[in-house]
Amino acid sequence: xxxxxxxxxxxxxxRLPGVGPKSAQRIAFHILSADPADVEALATALRxxxxxxxxxxxxxxxxxxxxxxxxxxxxxxxxxxCVVEEPKDVxxxxxxxxxxxxxxxxxxxxxxxxxxxxxDLRIRELMQRLSDSTIAEVILATDPNLEGEATATYLAxxxxxxxIAVSRLASGLPVGGDLEYADEVTLGRAFQGRRRLD
Amino acid sequence: xAVYRDxxxxxxxxxxxxxxxxxxxxTRGRGRIRAVARGVRKTTSRIGARLxxxxxxxxxxxxxxxLDNVTQVETIxxxxxxxxxxxxxxTAGNVMVETAERLTPEERExxxxxxxLLVSGLRSLAHREHEPTLILDAFLLRSLAIAxxxxxxxxxxxxxxxxxxxxxxIGAGGMVCPECxxxxxxxxxxxxxxxxxxxxxxxxxxxxxxxxxERREASGLVAAFVQWxxxxxxxxxxxxxxx
Lengths: 198, 243
Known about the structure:
The structure holds two protein chains of two kinds.
Chain A: H1 4-14, H2 21-33, H3 36-52, E1 54-55, E2 62-63, H4 69-72, E3 80-84, H5 87-96, E4 102-105, H6 123-130, E5 137-140, H7 146-159, E6 165-168, H8 184-192
Helix pairs in contact in A: 1-2
Chain B: E1 3-16, E2 20-27, E3 31-37, E4 55-62, E5 68-78, H1 87-102, H2 112-126, H3 132-146, E6 167-169, E7 174-176, H4 190-201, H5 204-208, H6 212-230
Parallel strand pairs in B: 3-5
Antiparallel strand pairs in B: 1-2, 1-4, 2-3, 4-5, 6-7
Helix pairs in contact in B: 1-2, 1-3, 2-3, 3-4, 3-6, 4-6
């Protein structure tokens, strides 16, 4: 199609998630006509992210030093660990400002059909962290889908012998929605997890 | 616009783009189909929860160019929700849906018997009717039988000589008489062979009376038999948690 460098750029961009051949072509021509300083800034950002960012030695979250921002913060409660699937979930929970403990990122969920078992996740590292007697509670915040629920079930069973309190995030009706539009599975969960108003 | 409606079981889901999923279903009328469900990963989606793996659904789709599109879904029974809180059952269910997918290699080729077997197998698992590994082994033997690979646990699989026999050989297709016995045949205990026969025929009283040792031996033979016929390993099988 195009010659040399332009086609190479289109091919590379086309490998990104959600970028089709047409979008790749549009982005490539935008880069071609953009200010050289802006393009340099993009290239530097791409290079830096691969060089500097790695995974936190304690929780598995993304970090620019050995430990992530949350694990390095002495004000965080060390007695509670919130278990999530991906680093993106840490950001989502941080936005709520409801949780002051620390995290543990599993790196996915158990998915037998895709060949992902408990040994492929950071469960062993979690169990090592839980051997510390200061930990009083583990909150399981895996996704509210079938794989996430089954992963939470597996973890709850594995943690139970340690005598640490295990809780699971509630699931139910989204705030701002109408009850009549809720699906029966979610509504059923909302009933199971109802709370008493005293 | 070609809209159609069918009844099916969700075998697996794969993420697509920002908020969509590709749903693989085994349907009553059209066999295995793959369809796009748009926006189901958003928390506001009304049909996302209905399209989880193991869900038995009444579904409406319209034909697309490569993949069909899901327009409406009603739950017949959310079998997955009843399994995810029991890890051994959930892992057994995963093997069942993976096997069903592998035994229906052609899309849109009706597979009514496989469909009926999968629905009844998943229901039995979700309703905790028997031990999960017994249900799984019964399902695997019967789904292979529907596919044309019915093992013989009585008469000799090669010459048809009246059983019972002592040797079992996967390649020969089950139990074999002393004359037909190929080298490398296994010699399972008579109770294990009785268990395998009971699982294939649906004799649950006999199956329930067996001990853990025979169930373990039977599961090993079933797993080897399935892998041999499917030619490629079932990814979910090593992850089954046995009680």
